[in-house]
Amino acid sequence: MQKKNFKFALEKTAPISFGFIFLGIAFGVLMNEAGYNFVWSFLAGVFIYAGSMQFVMVSLLASGASLLTVALMTLLINSRHIFYGLGLVEHFKSMGKKYPYMVFSLTDETFSILTATEYPEEIDKKKASFLIAIFCHIYWVVGCTLGGLLGPLIPFDARGIEFSMTALFLVLLINGLKEKQARIPALIGALSALLFLLLLGPEKFLLPSLTLAVFLLEVFKKNIEKTGEGKV
Amino acid sequence: MNHIHTVAVLSIIALITLATRALPFLVFGSRGEISQKILYIGRVLPLAVIAVLVVYCLRSLNLFTYPFGLPELISMGLIVILHLWKNSTILSVLGGTACYMILIRTLFKI
């Protein structure tokens, strides 16, 4: 019985295992370049467990950002989690002792696996979904730690590896733009950022642009909701 | 390197990330309904933030002096093409990063 659940969870998470490990390695290498060894990457992987935010963290650490900036950035970047939880409230609440861990480990990827998975009769849904969450977390921690360990061993200079962060966000943007309703919000974000980049320069523009974006999203609420007719 | 600052940054990120994950569960536990305002923001803010982050990644790009941002722009072009073609996050990130690392060592030495 136990073995079946294990195999089921392994199969369901296999497609993303490579992605988690690879991105984790990229993060660990970046941390290393910024002067933080594998212990820090390991800790970040275990306790933060949020890909985009960990990448942003590297540049926040490197630029010596204030704690207030860090807090606001985290809140804004991870605001999407609020939406993920909604679809899984019933499922998670039925899981007893495993419930807090399920909430903690809810990432973009686990959300998409958990909501897309159909559980056959011979599979224990609670055990299997718990294993799915644990496996994803393990892939990520292994990647982060491995990157931190491999960083100093890379035989060539890794100059330019920081572009992986740009690449990742660009890919996330392309994925997001497939949804019609995301187009105005993306445009609002890009224009707010460009405006404050030109006004305030590269060191200080981030928070004002995010604040303006939130404000504009409220202003254009009606237009945005119209583009997503019928969607929740 | 200031370890206390690093620990503080890590802890704040971990706690606030957890808070964003726990919010819908906490709200549904007690009041029964999550505010429409939060729902709306949770739905539309992520893409706006991603767009801001793309600009943030390119913040130090100088289009008016050599190499005119070309390594970045070419690599981003490749990422868009790769991603629309193969739709694989890993392939696009890996390909784009490799392209950038090669360009800044060969065609556009910086």
Strand content of chain B: under 5%
The CA-CA distance between the termini of chain A, in Å, is: 38 Å
Task: Tell me the number of helical segments of chain A per DSSP (H or I, 4 or more residues long).
Answer: 13
Number of strands of chain B: 0
Radius of gyration of chain A: 19 Å
Short description, anyone?
The complex is a heterodimer of chains A (232) and B (110). Chain A has 232 residues and is mostly helical.
Explain what you see.
Chain A has helices at residues 2-33, 38-47, 51-62, 67-77, 80-86, 89-93, 99-104, 108-116, 125-150, 163-177, 183-200, 206-219, 221-227. Chain A folds into two domains: 2-153, no CATH class; 179-227, no CATH class. In chain A, α1 (2-33) runs parallel beside α3 (51-62), α2 (38-47) packs antiparallel against α9 (125-150) and α8 runs antiparallel to α9 (125-150). Chain A is an all-alpha fold. Chain A is globular and about 60 Å long. Chain B has 110 residues and is mainly alpha-helical. Chain B has a domain at 61-110. Chain B contains four helices and no strands. Chain B starts with a helix and ends in a 7-residue tail after the last helix. The interface between A and B is large, with 88 and 63 residues.
